[in-house]
């Protein structure tokens, strides 16, 4: 019966990993499956718990540094940026007044909620801004200090 409980825990952790995509919970799932193996061999519950903890810890210690070493941004790897990484650093057009509390900008033809990155800045409609960071669905923008000029057609 103990083996079944460990297997259920391992499956739950593996399924949870699918939704988090952190490659962290899967390491504990491996520990749960190892504990299930110990339970199937007749080990007492205390030994099963030690196997779970030891295998999980070893998996984290062995795999996490490798994952971190291979994790690169698109900029570092030379790939084309996508998602938030592609938006950060791009130019936008202020559609509605942007301050520290509210605002709207157009980034690559899409309308985004925006806030001023610097709380003292107030950006008027028609101004060009630089997207500094994206937090959730809000772009944090900064007044573009480049020479004023026409925006590309896609940003109008």
Automatic annotation (TrEMBL):
Q: How does it sit in the membrane?
A: Multi-pass membrane protein
Occurrences of domain NfeD-like C-terminal (ranges): 85-143
Q: What is its main location?
A: membrane
The cellular component terms of Gene Ontology attached to this UniProt record, alphabetical and capped at eight, are: plasma membrane
The listed locations are: Membrane
Keywords assigned: Membrane, Transmembrane, Transmembrane helix
User: What is the top-level taxon of the source organism?
Assistant: Bacteria
Transmembrane ranges, per UniProt, are 7-35, 41-63
Q: Which SUPFAM superfamilies match?
A: NfeD domain-like
Annotated PANTHER family: INNER MEMBRANE PROTEIN YBBJ
**Protein's recorded name:** NfeD family protein
């Amino acid at each position: 019966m103990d083996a079944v409980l460990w297997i259920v825990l391992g499956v739950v952790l593996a399924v949870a990993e699918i939704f988090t995509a952190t490659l962290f919970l899967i390491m504990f799932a491996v520990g749960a499956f190892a504990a299930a193996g110990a339970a199937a061999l007749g080990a007492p519950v205390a030994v099963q718990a030690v196997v779970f903890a030891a295998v999980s810890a070893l998996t984290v210690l062995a795999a996490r540094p490798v994952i971190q070493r291979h994790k690169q941004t698109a900029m570092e790897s030379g790939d084309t940026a996508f998602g938030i990484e592609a938006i950060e650093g791009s130019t936008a057009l202020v559609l509605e007044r942007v301050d520290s509390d509210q605002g709207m900008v157009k980034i690559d033809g899409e309308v985004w909620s925006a806030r001023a990155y610097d709380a003292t800045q107030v950006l008027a409609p028609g101004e060009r801004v630089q997207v500094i960071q994206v937090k959730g669905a809000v772009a944090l923008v900064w007044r573009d200090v480049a020479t004023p000029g026409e925006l590309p057609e896609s940003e109008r």
